[in-house]
Amino acid sequence: MQARPPANPQRSAGEAPLSRGENRQGRPQPLPSPWQSGQPPQNVQRQAEKYLESEPLPPEVREVVRRYFELPQR
Question: What is the DSSP letter of 29?
Fold first, then answer.
């Protein structure tokens, strides 16, 4: 049986262990690009748009998908 690491005493219950990716001014930080050309191919962007249109997602998930696939804001 492995021992569990100690809980972070500064984090309240229910709080996400990762930051929301915002800088000190509250603006989102740019995400690293996994795309060779520096931006997603157009067919990938179209598929991501279709996914956002067809799936009931929470607003924060929609925002992350839009940022990751470099889609325009709506």
Answer: P
Q: What single DSSP character describes residue 20?
A: -
Q: How far is CA 36 from the centre of its chain?
A: 20
Distance of CA 21 to the CA centre of its chain: 8
Cα dihedral 56→21→37→45 (10° resolution): 10
The residue to which tokens 């956002």 are assigned: 52
pLDDT tens string 25-37:
777 777 677 878 8
Phi, psi of 28 (to 5 degrees): -65, 140
3-state secondary structure of 22: strand
The pLDDT value recorded for residue 13 is 56
